[in-house]
Backbone:
């Protein structure tokens, strides 16, 4: 699939692009959205979801970017690591924070497999009420 | 493998268990450590790593627990989800925060695959200097 | 490992290459098979499996290609995405079909983790008899 | 988190539940939605996405269910396997079709790793224009 | 799907079951094969592949069982961990060996993500000729 | 993040680099460690763990390298595959061994999903005492 530029986009796609640009105060949308425009229905749903969930809420936007990076590292998505690292830095992430993030992500991937290998039963105190 | 209780543990393992109990102010270590005690070398290294990296640093301990949960969800580790959710709640996580965490983790898993499927090239502005 | 070309292949490998070429009506096998030829036993088993399972059956060949792509996206295998997208297009897949496939694959990856995070119990009606 | 039943749900959640029930012609929503109701914003976005993308389109609804199952197997999500297998059967999936689906999913997981292990370069003919 | 017992199996399936029993010197096949018998074509191919590749070769059978366990831990397959641990023990694996295997598998899962997070370029000396 | 060369490293990082060079008898550390040096605490813990667990023990060092490669293939980590393949070859791995390793890794990834898809119950004889 090829990316779809604003000038070639349908009114439906342009409306999403316009909202992304206004919300994020950017002059053009990043490549992810230009490719997603090949599926205008999913483009609209996805942008709606991300706009609502990645903004301020119970968790602050920077924390959400860090969570996003941790998942993207675990799944090995170079584009997502790059775009959300840029997003995290724009929201105040420092090198020290990213280095800790990488360490925690690495450790979690290790202990996930160790808990798995030993088939550790959940402690009574950890069971949710 | 069977879990190793304090009373049956070697001095090497007991030293780690004692440090976990003193650091976390708990009466007994949780099951994960009792199983890890089957490999005393790894037990010591792992506790040393987690003790240093999960405490206060560039990221606050609650943020690190949330990152841990996001990775554990992505990798499908029920024990890790249970133990780190308990850890996150003890550090102040609310239901609202956990619900947002789950939403962000879900969205990241989706966009990871969409970026992947469309083979989206990294934008110039996202490339790290 | 290096790819093994027909001219350098053992009779055992040539027999598999010949069958691939005859079955698929192509002049040369694609790179995957040339690398697999480094392990002639596995080459023969793998081709035997794919030849029998990817052809017509309870599911039509195009549906099987789409399933293959969905798994390859989830596992992040660029070679497999490229080769099976070519295979799907040769069997009639349109851009509209591929865009829907990507959307469904993305959504499945999201809901997989949400079901996981909330530890949703299987409804009685969904349990297999 | 606990599931949220209709009688305890907010008007916002009830509206989504009502639409699920009307669309699918069922008396109650399945457990997944009752847990998702803990995050009403994500509930609404997710149902909106699935309602639009899983219905008729370029791919028929049964094919989409099969794709969903393949991804759920690959990610190891028992709830998703159970719910989408029920969905696939309701849309006409037979045992023979499911058995082929499992075989194709297994083979794709194998060849994904073999392509990966041998670092197979993409053939010129497979590159997308 | 239900498991298929020998008494209910087709001649085609019985032939595979007989070969498994003779090769492994067991009185009955384990559950995996009884479920795989729902897809007799895949059953035959899979048994043929495993019989040839898991026996003696360039790697000894115990090493192959350990590799199998490491992959099964990484993918979180409890059945596979159980069956191949039994297989490894039957070929001489000790608790000390399994504990080291778990440690190495955990470490590999961690460094895989750290290499990924830092996007480490491959050293010249590591590139294959 | 940028790699940290010895000349620019802190005394803490230099001490780890010196130990890696002395242990492995190499003139310079490989790229992985230069990037890990951005997080000196994790660098020290990680090297400590790998030094102890990857050396001689219940499993020989070559077997551990093969296990490492199998996990790295499954997780799709090109850097890790390259570095541990070099490590395995330095410890005696032949092409025939690596080809079998790839085949076993591929087969394990397939049967992991088939056991998963059929939801095969663990045989009594496979349950650990």
Residues:
């Amino acid at each position: 699939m090829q990316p779809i530029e604003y000038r070639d986009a349908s009114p439906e796609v342009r409306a999403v692009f316009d909202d992304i640009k206004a919300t994020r105060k950017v002059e053009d949308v990043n490549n992810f959205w230009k490719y997603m425009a090949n599926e205008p229905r999913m483009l609209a749903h996805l942008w709606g979801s991300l706009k609502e969930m990645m903004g301020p809420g119970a968790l602050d936007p920077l924390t959400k970017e860090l969570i996003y990076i941790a998942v993207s590292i675990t799944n090995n998505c170079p584009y997502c690591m790059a775009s959300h690292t840029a997003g995290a830095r724009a929201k105040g992430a420092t090198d020290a924070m990213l280095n800790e993030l990488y360490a925690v992500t690495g450790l979690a991937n290790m202990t996930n497999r160790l808990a798995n290998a030993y088939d550790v039963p959940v402690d009574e105190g950890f069971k949710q009420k």
Summary: The mean pLDDT of chain E is 97.
